[in-house]
Amino acid sequence: MMEQLLAEPPSKAVVEPLHRFVKTPSVIAYSEQVRVSLILPIYNEGMILLDNVRNLTKTLNRLGLVSEILLCDDNSNDGTRDAAELASSDRVFHLRFSERIGKGGTIKNALNAARGEIIVILDADIPVSPQELSGAISLMEDGHQFVIGVRRARPFTRTRRKILSIGFNTLTNILFRTKVPDHQCGFKLIQRGAADRLFPS
User: Alpha carbon 143 to chain centroid distance?
Assistant: First the structure.
């Protein structure tokens, strides 16, 4: 995902005025500095979004994290907007773009808006357990700049899809000189400083 973001040009999409977080972040006052920002890139996730955000919020509260959740909507055309507005709170913000900019562009804009020292990029289906989220954040607090999740093996995954996935990850590792076994997993963490260097405003 990070490689995809690097390859994409900065977005020219305009965030609609209803998203006060982007327009006027000073109106949101916290007694503590935001420690963790969770970015959820969303597109037509209206059926699952509200329940997933509520469950994620409960998890963050149990972990005792001073956090924010950014619901970054790539101009969905289903009920996502309504679900995101229902999910919004003093710690959950809905950013909706006025045109399709793709997942990479959505995440890049969200990185510039996020205020946490640790940034979590998470797919809307929340592909991790509370324990996995807590463990990954602990790794970041130990000083790691990046943490990338890896999906567990699925016994019923089709052979063709598995072969294509292995081929893609092998090629990506060769091109970018990395050793990441699963570049497509929707669970990645990055330190604020590293994000600023990779994606300057």
Answer: 20
Report d(CA 27, CA 30) in Å as an integer.
10
Q: How does pLDDT run across 59-92, given as a tens digit for each residue?
A: 999 999 889 999 999 999 999 999 999 999 999 9
Query: What are the backbone angles phi and psi of residue 119, rounded to the nearest 5°?
Result: -115, 125
* Distance in angstroms (rounded) separating the CA atoms of residues 20 and 27: 8
How confident is the model over 161-181, as pLDDT tens digits? Answer: 444 344 434 443 444 455 554
0.85 cut: is pTM over it? no
d(CA 16, CA 1): 25
The verdict on 130 and 156 lying in the same domain is no
Q: Are 14 and 110 found together in one domain? A: yes
